[in-house]
Each structure stands twice: as structure tokens, then as C-alpha cells.
Amino acid sequence: MAPIPAPSDRSAPPLEPVGRTGLRDRMTVPVLAFGGILMAVMQTVVVPLLPDLPRLTGSSAGTVSWMVTATLLSGAVLTPVLGRAGDMYGKRRVLVIALALMTAGSLMCALSSDIGVLITARALQGAAAAVVPLSISILRDELPPERTGSAVAFMSSTVGIGAALGLPLAALVIQYVDWHAMFWLTSALGALGLFLAWWAVRESPERSPGRFDVLGALGLAAGLASLLLAVSEGGQWGWGSPRIVGLFGGSVVILALWCVQQLRAEHPLVDLRLAARPRVALPHLTALLVGFGFYANSLVTAQLVQAPKATGYGLGLSIVGSGLCLLPGGVIMLLFSPLSARISTARGPRVTLALGAAVLALGYAVRIADSHHLWMIIVGASIVATGTTLAYSALPTLILRAVPAGQTASANGVNVLMRTIGQATCSAAVAAVLVRHTSLVDGASVPTLHGYLLAFAMAGTVALVACAAALTIPGDNAPDGDARRLRRRTAPAHEEALEGA
Fold first, then answer.
1. pLDDT of 362-390, one tens digit each?
2. Which of 21, 23, 156, 498 is the most buried (most CB within 10 A)?
3. What does the pLDDT look like over 215-250, one tens digit per residue?
4. What b/e string do you get for 24-50 counting C-beta neighbours within 10 Å, with b at 16 or more?
5. Strands 444-447 vs 438-441: parallel, antiparallel or unpaired
6. Out of 190-199, 253-262, 455-464, 467-476, which region has the weakest mean confidence (pLDDT)?
7. Contact 231, 424 (CB under 8 A)
8. How confident is the model at residue 131 (pLDDT cuts 50, 70, 90)?
9. Could you say which DSSP state residue 130 is in?
10. Which is it for the CA torsion 217, 223, 226, 232, positive or negative?
């Protein structure tokens, strides 16, 4: 690939006033948020289908589980890769590509019942995981600093909003119509999101020069695929099995060689020297811990309320009812994102992140105190959603303040990757806990309440560790790049020329 010229070699971006008021400009934030919600909906709609898919596709339960695993793996690999591509070739361009792949995958699911096609389609949909970090970077480039905080907080909350909407939506569709109708619906929504992004989102003028690091992308893909496949399938294949041990060992070797290659590369896929700085490394670590901490709530709540009443703790709710239990959390994430931005403005995103992790731990304390009554389950889950909103809204702001403007998409992509690894690790850990704590109810093996409470305690403990890690992040004053960006967008042309000289 030809080298990308430095930003100074390009024509200067339009010197428009910061407060643009055209319809397209007013629609930028809502359109990007719609894309984030769609991404989360696409990831969750398949969950209610999993118990019936072996019958519907004529395949085994283990094969069907790859409809989730494929999306996880491709999303983890493509998020940092597409983030780097966005920094180099244009964030809007790569955002449109990611939305197009997501929509194409949904259309393939609507047209087929073949499990191989369905797994391939779900892997394509994993590209949508890059939508949120790309959108956050676009917001930084396009909005004035006084609006960036609230917009980024709202964008971050779309992940939880979409997940809370996707589960009951899919359950309702599946309960009353053919399951393919769900994917026709998501295909139509994806096409709408794709058109709106093409129409409303401006191409960012920021570019990172250099060649795309193909070798680095392949190395990262191989290392992450080995690691996440081992974490995801360890419970089914056996943690001590040769396949799992080999995958873990292979991931360590591959990622170690990848780090060496990245340090030597002239234009690396991930700037490891920048990522090793405490202001970047600690938010990444905290993202992993928060991803672990929040995900247990989504994993456990639906199972717990659907458990039969004969267990002594289960409520026997339907799939639709269990999805509706998580819906208030999505509404809370929508309402609390402006509060997160205000706290970050007043106290700094580091404080917001630590507060969010502490609220997460409080939510799990409520879940441990009472998981018998539906209203208390909803209250506890909603508190966890509140903490997630605060934490996830603060993380991108910390990253944006710590990295140069030309690396925002790739750095946020790595941060989202760390959340994904945390979620995958949480899924494996919760599954391991529940498998070890089961009892027979009406001839079937179901998790005990003690197992669920242990899972809550584990997630709450990790949330407290995340709180401690957040408090160690160095001061989060905005770097010089933000001030220069604002001056460039408002200064007269002759001042821009002098600055370039």
C-alpha cells in the first residue's frame, strides 16, 4: 500500500465556525449513537435463539455456540485493526465499511438456515464492534471541546442501551413470528444506519501518516484468536485439554513475537510505547476489569429469573420477561450519560471511572443481599447499569486526553478490545463457577443460588479492584493537541500557515 502523506501535506480542513448548525451537523451525534445501538443489538439478538437453533439448523449445540464465539473473535480482532485503518484512511470511510459488513451479515442470516453460512455471517457482524471507537474519534475531531464530553459519554452508553433493547426485542419477534424475521428487521435497521452514516457524518481531517502494518494486523489476529478461543471454549473442551493448553501457549508466543515486531515497526498497528505510558495503560487495565465486572450482571440475571420455581429461588419467567428485567438498566444508561459527562467536567474522568467501578460493586452487594424478589433483582441490576454507564463514559475521555489526535481511533479500539477480553474472561469464569455449583431439579441439573451469589461476589470484587486501579491513573489534563485542534478550527488562515511553518 502506498504511504499515507502527513496531514500537513493535505489541503487544510475547512475553516468553518465550530458551532455549525446545518441539519447534517445536528444529526451527527444522533446518527453515530444509532450506529452504536445497532451494533449492540446485533450482538445480543441471537442469544434468545441459541436453545432452539440446534433443532432449527440440524446441528449440535456446540456448533451453534459458534454463532456467539465467531462474533466475539472477529470483533476482538477487527476493532483495533479497523481503528488503525480509520486513523490512516479516514474514520468515516471505515465506519461505513463496518456498518456495511454488519448489515451484510444480518442479511445472510435472514436468507439462510445453514449453520456454516450463519456462523460466517455472525463473523462479518463482528466488524461492527469498531463502530463505537470510530464514532468517539469522529466526535473528538468534529465537535468543539465543550460538547465533546457529553457526546462521548452518550456514545459510550449506547452499548448498554442496545444490549438492553436487543434481548427483549429478539425474544418478542421469535415468540410470535419466524426467527428469520428478526434478521430481516435488523437488516432493515442496518441499512438505515448505513445510509444515515453516509449522509450525516463528515470525514475527519485528522490522518496518521505511514503504511498500514499488515504483518502486525495478522500477528494480532492470530494471537487474539488463540487467546479468546481458549477462554471461550475452555469450559466445553476442558481447561487441561491439549487443545486449550496449546491455544494458551500459542497465544503467549505469538503475542510476544507481535510485541517485538510492533516495537521495531516504523508505523506499528499499535503504538506500544504510547500504550505503556501510565495515562494510557491504566485506563486499558481498568477497561478489562470493568468489562469483567459488568458482564456478570447480563450473564446471570436472565438465567436466574428464568430458573423454575422448584429451585426455591427461581421466578420461572419467560425469555421475554427476563429480557424486560434488563430493560430498565438500558433506560438508566441513557439518562445517566449526561451526569457522567458533568462529573468528568467538574472532577475529571478519573474520578468518574473510579465512582462507576464503586457503584458496580454496590450493585452486586445488592444482588447478594436479595436475589429472591423481582423488584430487588431489577434494582440491583439497575445499580450495576448505573456504574457501567459512569465507567464506560469516562474511559474514552481518558484515552482521548492521553493520545495524539492521529491515534484516537486505534487507541480507543484497543480500549474496547480490553473490555471484550474482560467480558470473555468473565463469561468463562461465571460458567466455571456455575458448573461447580449445581443441583438436580425435576431431573435436570441447574445452578444453585449459592453459585449465582459466588458469581456476583467475584464480579463485585473485580469491580473494587477496577476502582483502585482507576484512582492510580495520573492526572488527566487535556494534552496540547486538543488546544491546537481548537485553535486550528477557529484561527484565521494566516495563523494556520504560521503554525505550520
1. 999 999 999 888 999 999 999 999 999 99
2. 156
3. 999 999 999 999 988 988 887 788 889 999 999 999
4. ebeebbebbbbbbbbbbbbbbbbbbbe
5. antiparallel
6. 467-476
7. yes
8. very high
9. G
10. negative
Give me 60's grid cell: 449440535
User: How many whole angstroms separate alpha carbon 70 and alpha carbon 183?
Assistant: 17
What burial letters (b/e) apply to 74-105, b meaning 16+ CB within 10 Å? bbbbbbbbbbbbbbbbbbbbbbbbbbbbbbbb
What is the pLDDT confidence band of residue 436, given thresholds at 50, 70 and 90? confident
H or E element that contains 394 = helix 374-402
DSSP code per residue over 354-379: HHHHHHHHHHHHHHHH--SSHHHHHH
For cell 427476563, name the residue: 322
Spatial contact of 225 and 250, defined as CB atoms under 8 Å apart: no
Q: Look at residues 291, 286, 480 and name the one whose alpha carbon lies nearest to residue 398.
A: 286
Indicate if the pLDDT at residue 499 is higher than 50: no
Residue type at position 347? R
Return the DSSP state at 308. Answer: -
- 292's grid cell: 469483567
Residue entry with cell 521495531 = 264
The DSSP code sequence of 45-64 is TTGGGTTTHHHHHT--HHHH
Q: Which amino acid is at 156?
A: S
49-59 pLDDT, tens digit each: 877 888 888 88
**Cell output for 37:** 445501538
Helix/strand/coil (H/E/C) assignment for every residue in 421-450: HHHHHHHHHHHHHHHHCEEEECCEEEECHH
Q: Which three cell numbers stand for residue 473?
A: 491513573
